[in-house]
Design brief:
The structure is a single chain. It contains six helices and no strands. The protein has a domain at 1-38. The protein is 67% helix and 0% strand. By secondary structure, the chain is mainly alpha-helical. Mean pLDDT is 81; it is low at 1-9.
Length: 120
């Protein structure tokens, strides 16, 4: 995708029209351009993050979009599955510790101790 998509604008006709109605300040955005902006994280990994987020949000539209974009940027099926497993694990542990109302300061202290131990 990368360099090729810099010159290609994908139009999501009906959806894009609806989206533009709700953009603040009367500014229109190209949905296809937002994820293609350069950043510190390479595009393939940005799309894998998008897949993970779409799984947690349970958004099939985002899941389809980011899966196809990840594949176009060289992601393998194994990498896609790994991103989804990581999201599942993170969401699951978040549910667990929030549901049990574990003290945040205690949690933060324990995480920092573990990190310090691993660094040395």
């Amino acid at each position: 995708m990368g360099a090729l998509c810099k010159h290609v604008e994908v139009r999501l006709y009906g959806y894009q029209r609806q989206f533009r109605k709700h953009v603040q300040h009367g500014r229109s955005l190209s949905l296809s351009a937002l994820p293609l902006q350069k950043g510190a994280v390479p595009q393939k990994y940005r799309e894998l993050i998008g897949i993970a987020i779409s799984g947690v949000m349970k958004c099939r539209y985002s899941a389809l979009y980011h899966t196809e974009a990840a594949k176009l940027n060289g992601a393998t099926q194994s990498e896609i599955e790994d991103a989804v497993h990581f999201a599942k694990s993170s969401a699951g542990w978040s549910t667990y510790i929030n549901g049990l109302q574990i003290d945040f300061n205690q949690f933060k202290e324990e995480i920092r101790k573990v990190s310090k131990y691993i660094r040395f």
